[in-house]
Amino acid sequence: MAEYDLIIIGGGPAGLTAGLYAARANMSAVLFAPGLGGELLNTDLIEDWPGEESITGFELAQKMQAHAEKFGLKIELKGVQQVWSEKDRKVVELEDGTRHSAYAVIVAVGGEPVKLGVPGEQELHGKGVSYCAVCDGAFFKGEDLAIVGGGDSAFQEGLFLTRFASKLYVVHRRKEFRAQKILQDRLLAMDKVEAVTPAVVKRIGGDGAVKWIEVEREGKTEQVPVGGVFIFVGFKPLGKGLFRKEHIEHDPNGYLITDQYMRASIPGVYAVGDTRAQLAKQITTAVGDATTALIHAERYIEDLKHAERALPAAPRERMPAVAERLEPIRVMAGQTIIREGGEPDAFFIVTRGKVGVYQREGGEERELDRLGPGEFFGEIGLLAGTPRHATVRAIEPSELLRLDQETFQRLVSASSATREQLESVARERLATGARR
């Protein structure tokens, strides 16, 4: 089993962006995907990508891949079967049965087209029924075609099909379309395009290949002769299906639910792009999701490592939840972090710099100890439920991780080994202070 800091699942814009940032950060990371480009490969012209007035989906996918690989991103063209948590890591099982692990996983698998579920659709798939105009449109030159759907994807694909179709029917169940106005204006203004609304496709027929579609409109059924039908009625996210051994929060449509940092409900799992619940499915939003997720995942991984080094006795399966609660803090030289006699509300780990521990005696302050990276403080008051026994002040600019009282107490309550480690350090510190 190969071990990484981060595994990225998915090779579309979101996955490639996460991979680019991971490679630039020199992280131990790998991207798994059965292919690269994702939905970009199903899009002909892209005109809303900043800096490119017009670019094909294929060209943009190539550029994204080349950019990530330039910085050394490791890419393996393999599909992922499932993901589950194992102690402080996530195990990723590939379709060939091999397994890899990482502290964090970014899920960027997107989804697949929703089917109409009508007679003839499955039987004629690949014989005139298609879900990708860019892939198959050229095979239907001179044919009358139908496109089913009313959103951006349907209209973008419809514009592409007008290059080949003799006539194009746009079938939508509502009278109003959901596509952007600019797309509607372009497509519906063409003489060869006819809107069939409000209408529902009831059947797709033909002898070995598509010859017609049956639609129901205003209570009447009619048959529309076409040589091909292109379906764009929705999108089914795939991320949820990767988690079979543990529950991951999702909405009724199967989209993974995340917070503002793209964190899913399982610590160490991030969801980005079309597989998560969001307002718009755009390349720009997918790229933004991935940037946010990668930056937070990098911090999460480092915080987890710091916490495990400071608390070696803590159960590894509990540390991801602890790492998610750690708050990074920067302090200047001379800044007081905790004060003698104060309420014990947090536990601290030093990650950079140096702090001093001080106690007042006879009206004067004396130094008890100095702590550096990997050491911790604040445990005495939390364990005993008493006020702070000393003041801790930064000797130089320092970086700390702060763990709230509630999470600390849950950890020591669940792990006797962790409590014993902390109590041993606390006894030694109290004895040292008493001797001085």
The percent of residues in helical segments reads 25-40%
Q: Tell me the count of domains.
A: 3
- How does the major sheet shape up? 7 strands, mixed
Question: Which CATH-level-2 architecture of the largest domain?
Answer: 3-Layer(bba) Sandwich
What's the number of helices?
Answer: 10
Distance between the termini: 51 Å
Annotated CATH topology of the largest domain: FAD/NAD(P)-binding domain
Gyration radius, to the nearest Å? Answer: 29 Å
Rounded mean pLDDT is 94
Task: Tell me the number of strands.
Answer: 27
CATH superfamily of the largest domain: FAD/NAD(P)-binding domain
Structural class: alpha/beta
Percent of residues in beta strands? 25-35%
| Tertiary shape | elongated
- Class of the largest domain in CATH? Alpha Beta
Low-confidence stretches: none
Mind explaining what this structure looks like?
- It is a single chain.
- The chain is α/β, with parallel strands linked by helices and 436 residues long.
- The protein folds into three domains: 2-112 and 235-310, FAD/NAD(P)-binding domain, CATH 3.50.50; 129-231, FAD/NAD(P)-binding domain (3-Layer(bba) Sandwich); 326-435, Jelly Rolls (Sandwich), CATH 2.60.120.10.
- 27% of the residues lie in helices and 30% in strands.
- The protein has ten helices and 27 strands.
- Strands 1, 2, 5, 6, 7, 8 and 19 form a seven-stranded mixed β-sheet that branches. The chain has a five-stranded parallel β-sheet with strand order 10-17-11-12-13, covered by helices on one side. A four-stranded antiparallel β-sheet has the order 20-27-22-25.
- Helix 5 (181-188) links the parallel strand 12 (167-171) and strand 13 (193-196).
- The protein is elongated.
- The two termini are 51 Å apart.
- The model has no long low-confidence stretch (mean pLDDT 94).
